[in-house]
Design a protein that fits this description.
Length: 132
């Protein structure tokens, strides 16, 4: 279990994000994409247990959460994070399509889902602007 804290939250900057994925390459790509768009990536986690702890510690505005993690499935992680006080918006990501998961995406409490191949700052912003 490992969490990487990338910086402290600074008011006046873009929304803060915690990236959760077991692939370091995807985390690096997502971080670069989001930071270029003005998001502030405050941490990374590589599994479900550490992501729940990191979300509580870092209090990000958004958690970009992979569905397929080595220890817990992302749907369960989302529910655990959303049980906290003032929970972040959760955006699920996967290399699979949302339709592969049936209604589990809708029942997870996440704000939405983005396929990893379609991840962009615009897609993330569109989901964050929708009413929770």
């Amino acid at each position: 279990m490992r969490v990487t804290v990338l910086g402290c939250q600074h008011r006046g900057m873009g929304p803060t994000v915690l990236i959760v994925d077991d692939h370091a390459g995807f985390r690096a790509q997502a971080r670069q994409l989001l930071e270029r768009a003005g998001y502030q990536v405050v941490g990374e986690a590589e599994d479900g247990a550490s992501s729940v702890a990191a979300a509580g510690q870092l209090r990000p505005d958004v958690v970009l959460l992979d569905v397929q993690l080595p220890d817990l499935i992302g749907f369960d992680v989302a529910r655990r994070i959303l049980e906290g006080d003032d929970p972040p918006a959760i955006i699920l990501v996967s290399s699979r399509e949302a339709s592969d998961y049936g209604g589990r995406v809708d029942r997870s409490g996440a704000r939405g889902f983005i396929s990893k191949t379609e991840l962009s700052a615009g897609a993330l912003a569109a989901l964050l602007q929708e009413a929770p």
